[in-house]
Amino acid sequence: MSALDAVDDLYRQPLGDFTRARNALAKTLSGADAQRVRALEKPTVVAWAVNQVYWRARAAFDRVMKTGAELRKSQLAALQGKAADVRAATDAHRRAIADASAEAERIAAGAGSRPSPDAVARTFEALSLAASPPEAPGRLTDALKPAGFEALAGITPTKSAVRVPARPAHHERAEVEPREPPTRAGHGAKAGAKEDAKAARAREAEARKREAEEREAAAAARQRESELRKADAAVARAEATEKLARASWEHAHDALLEARRKRDDLKKSR
Fold this sequence. Notes:
Layout: H1 3-12, H2 18-27, H3 31-38, H4 45-56, H5 58-79, H6 86-110, H7 117-129, H8 184-269
């Protein structure tokens, strides 16, 4: 097995085995190769679940990537005023994401994991709409967020040309070249692009809201964990104090019994 295949194999394994397997692989290497392997980050549960679709359900993964590329192509064409069925491309992309997300959840459930369905879907969306897909698919280490409409930056929507003479003579009338009415296909494509942009902004706003909620939940969990650690420490201190007090009481009780025994013996000997 080559070093590349060995690294790929790390991301195929159960998530709980990643760190052990990575360290074991690094020990078989030396120099820069060993350092690069040791620096590999353990995937989050969402990234791991998406990776497993690439490794175990390649058809579903490829369908997401293909429909994502077709949607991006349609959006670019619409922005340039060309005929494009953005709505049909969007529907096909959504169905592909839903199928791939279901595969990811199924595989994760079989491994005892429950990644966020929304985070899984957003990661598939981000992967498939990226201008430059990852060089090493199947090796994600964290969830991704769709770039939104700004991913199409650099493409300027076309406008109907209006030509005005620089400065007509006083006896001449400036003429403006009439605009050609937009075709139905071009108009529908632009409308579809605007709807997609609005939907992308709505998804981003929803994603930011969910992220804020997740951060709040994580902060609350850390607070509860901190309070639990403090409570455990308080219980441990109280138990130690009780143990010490019990030992002191037993010692004092034994001393009392011994003193009484000696007194009783003296009384009997008189």
